[in-house]
Task: inverse folding
């Protein structure tokens, strides 16, 4: 592979990383809002912080820091593992929680007979 084509591949990968991350975070944030997730603000703040970090890395990369690709991979892998374990698993447990039984007579038969 020539230096030019390597650079093209890296350019596309960096763009895809930013786009995929935004799309994924938007999806999660929509799920949190639709389900009134109590940890929304903390989780969203973490997403915002990470997007800013990724954009800063992408900017460094655009300025020509080609060694950044390795640093990005190491950095993002570490972040992803922590984020999934700390934030996304908690959201998954919340979304998959059993439905609460609410209301007076919630267990009564629907046709009113006993
Ligand atoms: Fe998340």
Result:
């Amino acid at each position: 592979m020539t230096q030019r084509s390597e650079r093209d591949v890296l350019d596309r990968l960096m763009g895809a990383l930013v786009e995929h991350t935004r799309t994924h975070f938007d999806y999660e944030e929509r799920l949190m809002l639709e389900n009134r997730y109590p940890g929304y603000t903390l989780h969203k703040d973490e997403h915002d912080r990470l997007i800013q970090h990724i954009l800063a890395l992408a900017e460094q990369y655009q300025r020509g820091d080609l060694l950044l690709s390795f640093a990005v991979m190491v950095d993002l892998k570490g972040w992803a593992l922590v984020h999934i374990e700390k934030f996304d698993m908690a959201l998954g447990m919340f979304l998959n929680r059993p439905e609460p039984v609410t209301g007076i007579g919630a267990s009564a038969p629907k046709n009113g007979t006993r």
